[in-house]
Amino acid sequence: MESAIPAHLRVARRCPVAMPDDHQPPFPAWTARFSSLTGQVVMAYFGVQAATAIAPAALHAVTGRFSSPYAPAHWDLAAYVDEAGFHNLIAIAYWPSPQQFERWKTSSLFSAWWHAAEREAGEYGYFLEVVSPQADSFETIFSDRASPEGVASLAEGMSGEMQEHGYWGSARDRLPRAQIDALSGSATTPSATRTGKRVVLSGRENLCLIRSGQDWSATQQQERQKYLSEVEPVLREGMHFLRDSGHTIGCLNCRYMQVLDVNSHALMEKTFGLAHFSDMAALEL
C-alpha cells in the first residue's frame, strides 16, 4: 500500500500525522500521480450569471477559445443556482503552468475580450476565479482509479491503493506541504478594488478549496434508487447548509453543481461540491 505523498515531495516531517499506527483503510482509494516536473498548475473558473436559466452559448466567447493554441489540457462545464436565486454556468479549465495560461489569454484574444467595455453591460454578469497552487499544495482522492476528475486530468496516472484515507485528518496527511506547515489561515480580510462595474478580490493566505464529486451514471435499479432517494437528498441538504450558513463555521462559499456534457450540453448524472474554507482547520471541523 502506497503513501499518498509521492516520493519526490516527501520531506522530514515537522507536523505530526493523524493516521493511527495500526490503520487499515476500510475500502480502497487512489490518488492522482503527477510528473515530478509539475510545478504550479492553474484551475480557472469562467462563470456567467443571470436571473433566469442560461444557455451554454452565453459562455461560447470563452469555451470557443479552448481550441486555440495553449488551450487548457481539460475543461468541464457545470451549472448551479446560488443562494440569491441567480443561475450560474461555469467552465472550469486546467492548465499545467501559469505561463501556458497567460499565453492562452493573450494569443486567443481572451484578455482583450475580457477587458472590453462590453463586459460591463448586457444581460449577463461574468466572473473569473483563478486558483494556481504549487504541486505540494493540493491533493486528490478517488474511489475509482479509472475515472479521473478535475485537476487529475493533468496527471500521468493513478497510484496504487493508498493508505491515508478513512479517518479524521486524512486530507491533511495527504497534502505534501502539511508535512512542514500547519496551513493556518490569514486573519487579514481580502481587499477589493472597483473600477466601474468591475470588482477584483485578492486572495488570502492558505485559503482551502475542496471539490468533492458524485457519479451515479453506472448505477442500476436498487443502487440507483437508494442513492437518489436516500443519499442525494441528505448531500444536497448539507451543501445548501454550507451555501446559506457556512460562514458560521468558516465556509466562505459553497456551490453544489451539476455537470453538463461539454459537447451536447445535456445534464449528466454527475455532481460536485465546490467550496472555499478560510483554511484547512475550518474544513476539518
Describe the protein in words:
The protein has about 280 residues and is α+β, with helices and mostly antiparallel strands. About 20% of the residues lie in helices and about 25% in strands. It is built from six helices and eleven strands. The chain has helices at about 60-65, 100-105, 110-115, 170-175, 220-245, 280-285; strands at about 30-35, 40-50, 75-80, 85-95, 125-130, 155-160, 190-195, 200, 210-215, 250-260, 265-275. A seven-stranded antiparallel sheet has the order 5-2-4-3-10-11-9. It has a two-stranded antiparallel sheet with strand order 1-6. A hairpin with a 2-residue loop joins strand 7 (about 190-195) and strand 8. The longest helix has 25 residues, at about 220-245. The two termini are about 30 Å apart. The mean pLDDT is about 95.
Residue-averaged pLDDT: 95
> How much helicity do the residues have?
10-25%
Radius of gyration: 20 Å
Report how far apart the termini are: 28 Å
Order of helices and strands: EEHEEHHEEHEEEHEEH
The low-pLDDT segments are none
Q: Could you give the count of β-strands?
A: 11
Distinctive features:
285 residues; alpha+beta; 7-stranded antiparallel beta sheet; two-stranded antiparallel ribbon; 6 helices; 19% helix
